[in-house]
Amino acid sequence: MKNFVDELRWRGMLHDIMPGTEELLNKEMVSGYIGFDPTADSLGVGNMVQIMTLVHFQRAGHKPYALVGGATGRVGDPSGKSQERNLLSPEEINYNLERQKAQLEKFLDFGNQPNSAEIVNNYDWFKDFYFLDFIRDTGKHISVNYMMAKDSVKNRLESGMSFTEFTYQLIQGYDFYHLHQAHQVKLQMGGSDQWGNITTGTELIRRKGAGEAFALTTPLIKKADGTKFGKSEKGNIWLDPEKTSPYEFYQFWLNAADADCQTYIKIFSLKDQNEIETLIAEHQQEPHLRKLQKALAEEITERVHGKNELENAIEASNILFGNATEEALRKLNEKTLLAVFAGVPQHEVNTQKLKEGIPIVEFLAEETAIFPSKGEARKMVQGNGISINKSKVGMDKVVTEEDLINRKYVLTQRGKRNYFLILFN
RNA sequence: GGGGAGAUACUCAAGCGGCCAACGAGGACAGACUGUAAAUCUGUUGGUAUUCACCUUCGCAGGUUCGAAUCCUGCUCUCCCCA
Question: pLDDT tens, A42-75?
Fold first, then answer.
């Protein structure tokens, strides 16, 4: 049995740990769980820290439980929230749960080993709970004073919070108790913002005389520039390829800042300590090669989206950012082309107009709405900022049938990074 | 209730009768450099027009004037001081 706590420690994934936890983990196979909140129909990279915690937990020989919050999702966790949350309908929650389950299965081993992962839904044990039973059997053990002392509650006393959210910690606490009784789960893990909720659980277990329970939290990751991890300009980075294309996903990791990717690789990579330390050392020697970002992006993209999608993402990146020429672009078949430019804004133009040829400014401003006005389009062309099919164009450019790729497409670039795929039909 | 100051483009902020599509700063976008980075340098930043030029914009509505962001009147809103 590997030392799980040590593993988290060198990876920088240990924030807080209850006394006795490490001893327990080194003594026997432990069942531990982390809860996931079904407020979105996909997990995002922000959830990956927790997923990886479970992965390392399982790799150390322990038994991971992923709890999806069918019940808690109906209440709303006030931790770290400054406002009361909107409640989702039961249908939305169920849909979200199913999607998240499928994603968890990509990371954890659900086979037939003693320490195979399991997914549980707390709605299963809460759905038949009677309110009176709950407040008698559970509420009796936890005082309001204790609940009020939690940061998640204290921080909201000024702005106000509903009774519903106030009770959240009891519900989550009861989850722990239930898993402790039903599955001998002795450890709950989570982000450091969950410490309060988790200790309500250990407290409940202790007061109900049910035995020992332990807790461990991971730090919340922040980016070096202080902004929130897990978001790009376009918004959240999701694990669902429908919501964030594998290409965008790959790019997200590839674009990580130098300072950040040293933290990330320890958290998100399954490589061992030696290998990671070597990579970091190499990265510091030659940061411009960005070995870390590449290793990180490749490993994670492959795990989440598979080898095929990773290769497509790399290929797309080479075409979009490498020195790919017009020839390389023309060599792509239609399917790859569309895959590469999935997520790029598209415009449709009538093919008839091509017979005459479309002057570049008209093409940019009127036919495709890439620019809102002709003047702006003209200035950008004069400023050497427009490429058609990877080649810079000047004011004399006229778009004709010769420019079509696969007889249907014209790739337009504003600057280096903004692509527009024009579809002729 | 009394007195004062102000409202300018994405934001801040000049301009106070013609030279104003409006100084400057920030932001944004693009170019060079670079690592698909940071920093730096350069350009663009109301619309139409290849040029001349024209149109629309300085809180809103009127007025004075050959000509108004600029002067006058009314209105709306904001801030400050005294009660």
Answer: 998 889 999 999 999 999 999 999 998 888 887 7
Cα A199 from chain centroid (whole Å): 26
ipTM of this complex: 0.80
**Number of CB atoms found within 10 A of residue A161's CB:** 20
A414 touches strand B (CB under 7 A): yes
Q: Which residue has better confidence, A250 or A318?
A: A250
DSSP code of residue A191: E
Other CB atoms within a 10 A radius of the CB of residue A362 amount to: 16
**Co-location of A141 and A49 in the same domain:** yes
Dihedral of CA atoms A256, A257, A260, A266 in degrees, nearest 10, equals 50
**Does A53 map to a domain?**
yes
A400 CA → B50 C1’, Å: 21
CATH number at residue A287: 1.10.240.10
Quick check: A365 CB within 7 A of strand B? yes
A255: CB within 7 A of chain B nucleic strand: yes
Range of the domain at A38: 4-218
- CA of A178 and C1' of B66: distance in angstroms? 90
For strand B, give the nucleotides within 7 A of a protein CB: 29-32, 34-37, 43-50
Q: Which residue type occupies A68?
A: V
